[in-house]
User: Fold these one by one.
Assistant:
Number 1:
Amino acid sequence: MTTGQITIKPRYCECDPMGVAHHSVYPVWFEMGRTELLRSTGISYREFEEEGVFLAVVRLDVRYKQSARYDDDLVLETEITSIGRVKIEHAYRLLREEVLIATGHTTLACLNSEGAACLLPDRLRSSVDSC
Amino acid sequence: MTTGQITIKPRYCECDPMGVAHHSVYPVWFEMGRTELLRSTGISYREFEEEGVFLAVVRLDVRYKQSARYDDDLVLETEITSIGRVKIEHAYRLLREEVLIATGHTTLACLNSEGAACLLPDRLRSSVDSC
Amino acid sequence: MTTGQITIKPRYCECDPMGVAHHSVYPVWFEMGRTELLRSTGISYREFEEEGVFLAVVRLDVRYKQSARYDDDLVLETEITSIGRVKIEHAYRLLREEVLIATGHTTLACLNSEGAACLLPDRLRSSVDSC
Amino acid sequence: MTTGQITIKPRYCECDPMGVAHHSVYPVWFEMGRTELLRSTGISYREFEEEGVFLAVVRLDVRYKQSARYDDDLVLETEITSIGRVKIEHAYRLLREEVLIATGHTTLACLNSEGAACLLPDRLRSSVDSC
């Protein structure tokens, strides 16, 4: 299935008094991973929204294994693990060199501009299938 | 001029590796102060937006005098210092008991849903004048 | 088991271009729920940290069922569902009146100031047991 | 004086219901600009902190001129405009191609690990003087 990598450097304000990246910022990084993975298949999420198609997170699961610190050089691997008619699932692995920092999974549902479930756009499905 | 007070407790994720509230969260607190000040005059900012009226920050100035820490009991005083035809100015004082933590000023401009400057709604101007 | 409630009003900056609270802010609200639940048993998390005891999130799971919007009046119910020697588990239900917005679960591990696993403080365990 | 450039892409969660980057995220971008400017002179802010030297923002001023949107390609120019014995000042210009989005200024003070004012490290002063 389609996979991609981005680099992440935890920002100062993303780190907490323990000196480590706060756990609530990982879902933000996952979203960045999804955006860039989509872009790599030739699709802009911003264009989706301009056409009235939205992808809403309906499930999030994160396992935190090691801390990440301010200014660390991290790599986030994002993979599409399943794509159905209205939902798409991703898996994530966050690494600092060989050290596994965290893993995660999300499920997104496709919504129209009224917030009702709708079919994932064909060009998203076909871009994934062709990978 | 119209003034109001809210209480603030810095959240854990709002504090940085120095153990103090990050400077970028103060503008967020100022916005909360404005929302509640507006509400105290009987106006909901959410209703404004539903009517297509937006208030955009065009200037922000903050002086940080002392640190605020996680779980501190802070008081934010918000005051409308000037109201014109399209702009409104606020001043802020953030305190922990008698200690002055920070002061700030903002200027907001009224925009319509296309992002063009427009007149501040009459009921905002009159609610301020009557205080 | 010990339970508590707090009220939440999504802040403007917590809402995204879809007009709804961004999914990454839910873990922040859950943390606020834990802090207040702890406080209700007479324990300050800030004091824990001052004594060199830290609670780190090692697992997070959220199911998003309905959107929350700016300035909504939400209630977050937080419950301790399990407490062991080094880990503590919480469950969350976020509601807008009778509507269930989201549910969540977290597992926290107790760490010392070097980041090594350590026993949960006795007074935390006993405060929970006595509820 | 020393200057540097970084690229910025507003994240989805940094944008608000108006569809534009929230004003509170600009100070976060300015901090990123300072970190990379420092790095370009061969200094890591993280190392500073590990040696017990902290730079705290004591003044922030931002003028917002145009909106920035999700996924825009922005450039942030950061310049050191003044360096004294304990304080350092920066100016910022945020651009989308030729369009000026915002300008800003900050003043930072050097603090030791007890939070008391202290002299800026010699190697910071000399790295700036030599540019």
Note: DSSP finds three helices and five strands in chain A.
Number 2:
Amino acid sequence: MFTAAVLGATGYAGAELTRILLGHPRLGRLVLASTSAKGEALGAVWPNLLGLGRGGPEPRLVDPETALADPAIEVFFSSLPHGHAERLAGPVLARGGLFIDLSADFRFGEDEAAFHAAYGQGYQFPELHRQAVYGLSERNRAAIAKARLIGNPGCYPTAAALGLQPALAKGLARGLVTGRGIVIDAKSGVTGAGKEPTRTTHYAEAADTLAPYKIGTHRHAPEIERSLAAIAGAPVGVVFTPHLAPMGRGIVSTMYLPLARPTTVEELHALWSDFYADEPFVRVLPPGSVATNREVRLSNFCDISVHLARGGETAIVVAAIDNMVKGAAGQAVQNMNIALGLDETEGLRSLPAAF
Amino acid sequence: MFTAAVLGATGYAGAELTRILLGHPRLGRLVLASTSAKGEALGAVWPNLLGLGRGGPEPRLVDPETALADPAIEVFFSSLPHGHAERLAGPVLARGGLFIDLSADFRFGEDEAAFHAAYGQGYQFPELHRQAVYGLSERNRAAIAKARLIGNPGCYPTAAALGLQPALAKGLARGLVTGRGIVIDAKSGVTGAGKEPTRTTHYAEAADTLAPYKIGTHRHAPEIERSLAAIAGAPVGVVFTPHLAPMGRGIVSTMYLPLARPTTVEELHALWSDFYADEPFVRVLPPGSVATNREVRLSNFCDISVHLARGGETAIVVAAIDNMVKGAAGQAVQNMNIALGLDETEGLRSLPAAF
Amino acid sequence: MFTAAVLGATGYAGAELTRILLGHPRLGRLVLASTSAKGEALGAVWPNLLGLGRGGPEPRLVDPETALADPAIEVFFSSLPHGHAERLAGPVLARGGLFIDLSADFRFGEDEAAFHAAYGQGYQFPELHRQAVYGLSERNRAAIAKARLIGNPGCYPTAAALGLQPALAKGLARGLVTGRGIVIDAKSGVTGAGKEPTRTTHYAEAADTLAPYKIGTHRHAPEIERSLAAIAGAPVGVVFTPHLAPMGRGIVSTMYLPLARPTTVEELHALWSDFYADEPFVRVLPPGSVATNREVRLSNFCDISVHLARGGETAIVVAAIDNMVKGAAGQAVQNMNIALGLDETEGLRSLPAAF
Amino acid sequence: MFTAAVLGATGYAGAELTRILLGHPRLGRLVLASTSAKGEALGAVWPNLLGLGRGGPEPRLVDPETALADPAIEVFFSSLPHGHAERLAGPVLARGGLFIDLSADFRFGEDEAAFHAAYGQGYQFPELHRQAVYGLSERNRAAIAKARLIGNPGCYPTAAALGLQPALAKGLARGLVTGRGIVIDAKSGVTGAGKEPTRTTHYAEAADTLAPYKIGTHRHAPEIERSLAAIAGAPVGVVFTPHLAPMGRGIVSTMYLPLARPTTVEELHALWSDFYADEPFVRVLPPGSVATNREVRLSNFCDISVHLARGGETAIVVAAIDNMVKGAAGQAVQNMNIALGLDETEGLRSLPAAF
């Protein structure tokens, strides 16, 4: 049994972490922390979770400082905005805790310049970034198992890396793909925009609307480039365009890979399905099926389908995740399971609903 | 560990039964049956459930007759259209099995006339109806525990009965309500219309549209009247209007109860919360909160909020359920748990997501 | 040709007034005013209206004071929040202008107490309220024709009054209805909540969710009571419950009228269809059809269907409008047409789309 | 004044043609024809159009043969499935009528092989295809003005051609783009799938879901290739992937054009805005804005925004249309206006709503 805390439990990622952790069979105690809602009952903040104190008082949120000072807490998840985790992680690590950050703070490793370019601020504690592991579970499992500080990947970067990993890790060497001119056209549900109400997330303007945004400027672009380059072992040429789609959850990334030589759907499918044969959370769909967010909703699955474009010069890879689960809280719990030596699927086995 | 079969696994209720049962910790073996899809792999019929055969072949659907002939299956859930279960239940009961029907076949007890009026057909096996228990878990728990044949309530009747039960079981005797002139204005998501594609369920016509339907003629009206009368111990005067709302899951029933004397929100709230104090799946919200389907989605909860109308002459009760879970498959599994003597919440503890 | 100004052109009602007025064949010049966006180009504020200055500069918004000081403007529409119009109307009236207010400021006539109870503030210029006409076009046409100051009805009150008017104006005298115990269960799209982004209007929480709100406390309740009492010539007992539905536009009000004597659907239908026989914007549907917001979207129609509940003791009236058109900007333009002596349907003839 | 008929008035394109034509100021008489609904009242088929016979009987649908035999009808729109128009057009042309087909029958000119490859059938009347003009208004205006037989473009091909036209007509010659490796990632609302209810269009499965489909096999791909090649004067290398988005109307195409040399957003914007400077229905958005279907809904506009990808090697063009208007019925009416010598914007001036 483990004891965990969620720092930033009132945001969307925090709510999702709370929901998943409360269903984790190994959870001993869960402490929820929030600056803005300290002292409030959980059911008042998240009515979906009302009544968990049945037969006793409702759990109440505490101040993050209170949680950090609690020596019994072994695992800290931070879903605070970027810039906070870097400040909080040090003391947790110093006393042997595990710190998993869902913001961008620890996603760029020692490349402070890249982080600065994307987020407009530098590192305060450079030594922390030397220890931080990029928490893409299906790539960095060995490092995550030994990590005490994990930078959980962004939602778009997770879908992109899982979808393209077989091509870049194996397909380059086989002369199948060029690694240049890759287009990632990604569509996200509105939960990806976070809880803050804005004109963009207003139902009346988001519903019934498909809107590309931040073309050429989204902060996940450098994270994607960095992640793909690490997989390929060389820089990868990629164009990334995010879209806001009128749906709650989910990312569907349609990715276009120029081929270096003729191939078949069968060869493509074999490459992807062999690569992920042993992964519990990646499903490579049978040829002819197409990945969508519907089939992975509320689960930790990443569904991937692989296609050949008309003309045969381009492979099309579709990767679908629930942005709040595999793209955030689910992968964070998966990483915790790995780091704590638990079965990787514990607490993450709930099946997606069909509708 | 129990062995179960789902007859009609390709419909919406069947898919939901499958999803819930696959997550039930006491499930030994699950047999999925369908006339139309026999022989198909589960992941081909329901791609959300793809890959459950990981490390082995995908489960395949069988013919209902095959399932019925399997002597190892103890529990049969039927989500076939009305008219089928009555034909299939007898042999299962004869060999000591448990039969839970999600159609209307066993909801009307011995009142064949009422069933005939609503469904246009009579009983073929009248003796079965003497044994059948109406599976409203929070009302008939004792009888369900001893039942071998359960008629699982309709979705609208579940929301109505759970919302009104305290008023009719206790409020009448206290002189609080009249039991006459009750209005049930119910809104359902489109999954309630079933899987068959029709013009009504076409996205282009269902989206962005709130549509009352079958006003004065819906088949759930007689079931509601019968269920409420049983609770009240006398006929209850009720007007029921269903609406199709542009959402996937959920029923929100807004119910108007004429009061027989002045009261307060506090008295109302106390009546409801005392009544349901020990129920694991009914949450009476604190005064000031309003029940919605959002907070119960994909869970077996029924949320209820109680209000006093301006003027004070009418109580307003809002009951919210997930129509596919508490309104169908979840309540069926709850009833199975009761009938098998398991913990009533087994397999039904997954928490609703906040969004 | 008339010259008009919209005060508060950046809100949702202002945007809709702008759209409708720009298509009005009698419009000479339109001045758009906003405190927050003065000086901005129309296409920057409302990109849907981009390019109207083709072949010339884009129209730009001005300060409300500038508009009010322009002696050539004959008609002022105010969609500013309540409390503003009362301050601005006087000078416009003084110079012979027409002032149509879409807020609540002029909806309560001389009943300052009722306004104060609902909106928490009193009248600053009581004499204005003696002149104000309640702009329910289908009821007060004669008075509107002579008015210079019009309080445009709220969206919920419009649907309620149009739906119930035949019953209260004719049915009471015929002994058909009682005028007591009327239930108005109203469902509105999210545009009704206005442009301000809030947690309630956040797509991630509004989508897929049907939520009653402000039960017993909504500010439109007293307006509805007042409007219905005026029609009936006596107080009417009514319970009003608004719901937020996951759709952009539209109000569907399902209304339950206790009957004083037995009747038939045919008698009910005849009463409603005779009453509205000459109305260009009210469509009483043929028996068996049900009114929905889908069929009136983006039009000034109010669709009404009339039904008899099972048991025959209650009539059910469904009224559907586009809350932004007939429930706000469209009715305002209709009132302007009446007050200016134009054809009442000018600028309002666009047909609803089927999907 | 012109007299027109819509053949196939009960489908989605037919409904939209009917709505638009009924608001056309030059319309004399409109005849609606349908095999399946002949004899029915318009308001029964399309309740949104109920009541147009106010003060007289409702218009009734006739058999297509009846319409074709009416010598007073000058303009025929056919929204029948492909394969029908080819059979019907000849006699209309023979007596001097104008025939505008919204199916694929006349989109491939004399290239019977391409049509056959996509639609699995050949030409019955090859001589008709010599006369047919591809009705992309903004490209073929001169030919359309003289045409009597117009093949109205598909929805995806319209968005693609309008978005890419400046690049292919001017940018190739300027050495700006290569014309190879173009990716068209297109997202369509569900109305694009037509009125036939299917599992794909079922609300419960289409809502909240973003689904690529027919990857590499969609029938619009060869039409797009043909249309772009005609613009470029040479074959163009293009990959086209359609997606079904959870919205009613609209296509948003995000298109990726490899650049042949460095450029700036300003150069790109100037190319597009100069190219379309005189077009009444194409709006090139100011730099920094992004085209979405929301801003063009229910209008004949095509909004285009042009962007430079991070890295500068790819131009990104976003084109947004209402698939039912500019992508079908609106463009058909625009073509009719051109062919009849009317003002091209007649009947098409209604402004998009902001929400």
Note: Chain A touches chain B at residues 12, 15-16, 19, 22-23, 46-51, 54, 191, 207-208, 248-249, 280, 283, 285, 289, 294-299, 303, 324, 349-355 (CB under 8 Å).
